[in-house]
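Protocol step 4 of 6: structure prediction from sequence.
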Amino acid sequence: MRRQLGVVVLGLMMGLGAAATAQAQQSPYAFSGDNAVFMNFIKPDKTADYEMLIQKVKDGLKASDKPERKQMAESWKVYKATESGPGGSAIYISLITPVVKGADYSLTALLAEAFPAEARALYDTYIGAFPPPPTGQLFNMTLVNDLAK
């Protein structure tokens, strides 16, 4: 009986471990809500680098042969806040409405897909734009009320 219980517990632990691994591998930039917003806090002297990366993502999405990439470009807007964030950082807010469900909006993944030969340099530029550690906030959103309608 004890042996059977041990096998059951071990099986449950392995199953939970596999589920946690699968969940950890899913990008936090694959949104499940209808709309999404994320904020990135960028070093004040790296805003030109970050804006260059956003432009490259836009170019890559529009040049893609994948219809979902073109949809992503159509519904994604990036704003820069007038206010400063922690440590004088610039705040960039991405508003995605509607979300292409299941699509990965990770800038590094999109840059690597669109510009594989430049992927390492673009990644280094991306990481260098953030104050340590890389900071940002992600939100999945569902519309509660559209006051315009």
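Step 5 (inspection) to follow. The first helix runs from residue 2 to 25.
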